Amino acid sequence: MIRVGDTAPDFTLPAHTGEDVRLSDYRGKRNVVLSFHIHSFTGG
Q1: How far apart are CA 44 and CA 39, in angstroms?
Q2: Are 22 and 11 in contact (CB under 8 A)?
Q3: Among 19, 26, 32, 41, whose Cα sits 20 to 30 Å from the Cα of 12?
């Protein structure tokens, strides 16, 4: 379980440009906010 203050595990996701983006690419360089919106931008 991840708790407040823990380092987030590294993961890779596709960006809107089609390239892969890794969380570790930003570690120590920028602040990152993760936001998940279930069914956003869908017709459902």
Answers
A1: 7
A2: yes
A3: 41
pLDDT in tens, 11-32: 998 888 989 999 999 988 988 8
Question: How far apart, in whole angstroms, are the C-alpha atoms of residue 20 and residue 10?
Answer: 13
Domain boundaries, the chain: 1-44
> Distance between CA atoms of 20 and 22, rounded to whole angstroms?
7
Give the pLDDT band (50/70/90) at residue 44.
low
Distance CA 19, CA 13 (A): 8
Is the pTM of the predicted complex or chain greater than 0.85? Answer: no
Cβ within 8 Å of residue 9, ≥6 positions away: 2, 23
